[in-house]
Write a structure and sequence with these properties.
- Helix content is about 10%, strand content about 40%.
- The chain has about 300 residues and is mostly beta strands.
- The chain is globular and about 55 Å long.
- The mean pLDDT is about 95.
Amino acid sequence: MIKIPCTSKIDIMSASNAPAARCKDGDTVIFETMDCYDGAVSRDGIRDWEGKVCGKYMANPATGPLYVEGAEPGDALGVEILSIKTRGWGAMGTGFGEHGFKNYEGEYVMRAFEFEDGFVKIGGKKIAIEPMIGVIGVAPAGDGIPTVTPDSHGGNMDCNKIVEGSTILFPVAAEGGLLAMGDLHALMGDGEVFEYGLETSGEVTVRVKVIKKAELRQPTLAEADEKGRVMTIASALTYEDAIRLALEAMYELLLAKGWDKTEAGMLMSMKCDLAICQIVDPQVTVRAMMDKEFFE
């Protein structure tokens, strides 16, 4: 089985990146990932600020990229998440003065949390961890995009539904797709409202599949299937634009399945749910969700 070490990492998703590994359509691949701090935070919660300032660490590094043979522009790349295994601890900073906490002042604090039998403790409460992938995507069309930024290629979507058992489709814009991922979270609520999730590192095992453009309408942005629900995930500078893009993509999926354009819209008002994935990255990310039965 192919395994890509965390030392093969990028901070820009781009068609110009040299592949860290190559695989065939249908192969299973393990990605060993760093956390979003690139290892700058220790298990006791101490952060190497001097190293960050002098450029010792990447911002939100992603492991890869992986070149998938047969993936060509116009195709879709399916990524089935078989397992997510985290290390035994995570770390979080604070977000006072930012976004939803703009009106609150507070000291910046970095804190580490140990995982015990799949749980983490905070404020006397014991909470089950729910590992997810924060950054996952392919090379975009045109200029490269930093791994801190989400867009139609995926990237830093911070969608807490990208978990073990889900499958994501990405639009292929460069030969081989050039898949990369990282920024694991042990826990993160919708919105990532206090600037960070419970950041961690680990290993992600995926199976990749090339879907030729003749077989399927090419997605215009990341689409996912998680626990019987279909999701379209969109990022933009404003909530309004991100919501519009996610809804348009969902609507087009229904039309492609033969739904009448009026009834498709009505169905979406009846059964389509919208949720915020994150509010703290250079672009906001939202998802639209519908039960898979409407696409069968």
